[in-house]
C-alpha cells in the first residue's frame, strides 16, 4: 500500500445541482482525505489545456464547453492507493456502466456530464495536481 495523492474535479453539472457536499462525503467515507480544495470558474485556456490529451477525440469541444458551464471544485485527495480508490468511488465513465453506490451511478446525467474527474495514473495525478495547486496550497 502506498500513500498517494490524486486530483479530483467536481464538474459543473454537479456543482449546479448542489451535489458538492454529497460527493465529498463519498470520498471521506471511503477514507480519502481532502488536503486541498478550491471552487473556481475555469478559464477557456484552463479547460482546453487540462483536457488537451483528448483534443483529437470527437467529444473534445463538448467536453470543454461542459467544464465552462459553471463553477468546478478542484481538490487534492490523499490516502492509501488514492488514485485507484478514487476511480472506484467515481465509477465507470459512462453512468450506464457504473456500479451501484458510485458517484457516477448516483449522480451523473450522461457520459459527458458525469459529475467528476479523477486522475488515472501516478504521472497524470502529479501533473494534474500541479496544474491547479501550488505546494503551499496543499496541507496534509
Ligand atoms: P474518465 O473521466 O472516466 O477518465 P475519459 O478520460 O475517457 O474518462 O474522458 C474524459 C471525459 O470526457 C469524461 O469524463 C467525459 O466527461 C467525457 N467523455 C468521455 N467519453 C465521452 C463520450 N463518448 N461522449 C461524450 N463525452 C465523453
Ligand atoms: Mg480520464
Strand order of the largest sheet: 2-3-1-4
Helix content: 25-40%
Strand content: 15-25%
Report the principal-axis shape: globular
Radius of gyration: 14 Å
**Secondary-structure element order, as H and E?**
EHHEHHEHHEH
On the 0 to 100 scale, the average pLDDT is: 98
Please report the total strand number as a whole number. 4
Number of helices: 7
Specify the biggest β-sheet. 4 strands, antiparallel
Low-confidence stretches: none
| Class from secondary-structure proportions | alpha+beta
Bound molecules: adenosine-5'-diphosphate, magnesium ion
End-to-end Cα distance: 18 Å
Structure description:
The protein has helices at 12-16, 20-29, 44-50, 60-67, 82-90, 103-107, 122-132; strands spanning 3-10, 33-40, 72-80, 116-118. The protein starts with a strand and ends in an 8-residue tail after the last helix. By secondary structure, the chain is an alpha+beta fold. The longest helix has 11 residues, at 122-132. It is globular and about 35 Å long. The protein has a 4-stranded antiparallel sheet. The mean pLDDT is 98.
Amino acid at each position: 500500500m502506498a500513500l498517494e495523492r490524486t486530483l479530483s474535479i467536481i464538474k459543473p453539472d454537479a456543482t449546479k445541482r448542489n451535489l458538492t457536499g454529497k460527493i465529498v462525503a463519498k470520498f471521506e467515507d471511503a477514507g480519502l482525505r481532502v488536503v486541498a480544495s478550491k471552487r473556481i470558474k475555469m478559464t477557456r485556456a484552463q479547460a482546453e489545456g487540462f483536457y488537451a490529451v483528448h483534443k483529437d477525440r470527437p467529444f473534445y469541444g463538448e467536453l470543454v464547453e461542459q467544464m465552462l458551464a459553471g463553477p468546478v471544485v478542484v481538490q487534492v485527495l490523499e490516502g492509501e492507493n488514492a488514485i485507484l480508490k478514487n476511480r472506484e468511488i467515481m465509477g465507470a465513465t459512462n453512468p450506464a456502466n457504473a456500479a451501484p453506490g458510485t458517484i457516477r451511478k448516483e449522480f451523473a446525467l450522461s457520459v459527458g456530464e458525469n459529475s467528476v474527474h479523477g486522475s488515472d495514473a501516478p504521472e497524470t495525478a502529479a501533473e494534474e495536481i500541479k496544474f491547479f495547486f501550488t505546494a503551499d496550497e496543499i496541507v496534509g
